[in-house]
Design goal:
This protein has helices spanning about 5-10, 15-40, 55-75, 80-110, 120-155, 160-189. By secondary structure, the chain is an all-alpha fold.
Length: about 190
């Protein structure tokens, strides 16, 4: 094997590199928001919020979706395309359910617990941080939908695992990010 091909194999695919750069940016954004919440939580006007149980259900859903995403990627690499399509579709469905459960959780906060953007408490941060996370998951759901439609209706068959590896990396990241956010809120509020 020539030295050029060995060096080429060591390089990271540009899409994977871009994903890691994006993940680093998202981490910095959420670190800044949670740091601001820690500082604000020490003020006298701080009010706490009860986290609705529906957010726990959404946590189970996103954890399961991470498992189905990993199984889908493994099925793709084993060239088991029927199972891959099924698992990718299930992951897509679970992602949609997660976003819907988040929306329902926001409605519970707003209507039942009267948590609004008024005042100086955890509610403001909860809406912003949970909402931004839900938007990132929604972006992942859209990417999953595009990949799913491409494998169902695409005429050109490309057997590169890179798009699915990038998607799996992002999906696992938003899963871990949700766990961090939820635990963070439980500790602070």
């Amino acid at each position: 094997m020539s030295m050029v091909s060995v060096e080429k194999n060591k390089k990271m695919h540009p899409h994977k590199f871009s994903m890691w750069v994006a993940i680093a940016g998202i981490i910095m954004m959420f670190a800044g928001l949670t740091s601001a919440m820690v500082v604000k939580s020490h003020q006298a006007s701080w009010t706490t919020v009860e986290i609705p149980r529906i957010f726990w259900v959404s946590t189970v859903i996103i954890l399961i979706s991470s498992i189905t995403m990993q199984w889908a990627l493994r099925s793709f690499k084993q060239r088991n395309m029927p199972l891959f399509r099924l698992l990718l579709g299930i992951t897509l469905l679970l992602g949609l359910i997660f976003v819907i459960l988040q929306w329902l959780g926001f409605n519970i906060l707003w209507n039942r617990y009267d948590v609004t953007f008024q005042g100086g408490g955890a509610g403001q941060f909860l809406y912003v941080i949970f909402g931004l996370h839900a938007l990132h998951v929604l972006g992942g759901v859209i990417a999953l939908l595009v990949l799913f439609l491409r494998i169902i209706f695409g005429k050109k068959r490309i057997y590169s695992a890179v798009p699915y590896e990038v998607m799996a990396t992002y999906w696992h990241f938003v899963d871990l990010l949700w766990i961090y956010i939820l635990v963070f809120f439980l500790i602070i509020i």
